[in-house]
């Protein structure tokens, strides 16, 4: 199976996910957008802090997730793209790619979709966890592959 980690934007999730795959000897390709001052600062901080193992996979610099380089990868990939901080995908990309797209969502779906699911879980004293799901045209609405509860305030 071939994997691509899409680390678009200024998100740390993709770096963490890529490091975990590297530690487990799973080959993958990284797509990283580095055209914002914030993402460059974060990348410099990660290097200076020696955060986890170095990523040895191919890094592809793109301006956005609609970049032709990205579409070419998606169209020629027999495998999965794992979202590591990706913004919402254009429905045409989802429909016209030969690969499937997975998202690692830092919340328990379907209860806490969208941004800040951990904060909302804490505010409501609801369980905190993570969900892996296929990406569809909705926001965090695709079929769930795996869901794991990590903390349950009520069971303590």
Keyphrases for this structure?
single chain, 156 residues, alpha/beta, seven-stranded mixed beta sheet, 5 helices, 7 strands, globular
CA radius of gyration is: 16 Å
Helix content: 25-40%
Query: Would you tell me the overall average pLDDT?
Result: 78
SSE order? EHEHEHEHEHEE
The biggest beta sheet reads: 7 strands, mixed
Structural class designation: alpha/beta
Number of discrete helical segments: 5
Q: What's the total number of strands?
A: 7
Uncertain segments are none
Q: What characteristic shape results from the CA principal axes?
A: globular
Strand order of the largest sheet: 3-2-1-4-5-6-7
Strand content: 25-35%
Distance between the termini: 40 Å
Break the fold down into its secondary structure elements and pairings:
Layout: E1 2-7, H1 13-23, E2 28-33, H2 37-48, E3 59-62, H3 68-75, E4 79-83, H4 91-96, E5 100-105, H5 117-123, E6 128-134, E7 144-151
Parallel strand pairs: 1-2, 1-4, 2-3, 4-5
Antiparallel strand pairs: 5-6, 6-7
Describe the structure.
The protein has 156 residues and is α/β, with parallel strands linked by helices. It has five helices and seven strands. A seven-stranded mixed β-sheet has the order 3-2-1-4-5-6-7, with helices on both faces. The model has no long low-confidence stretch (mean pLDDT 78).
Short description:
The chain is built from five helices and seven strands. The chain is α/β, with parallel strands linked by helices and 156 residues long.
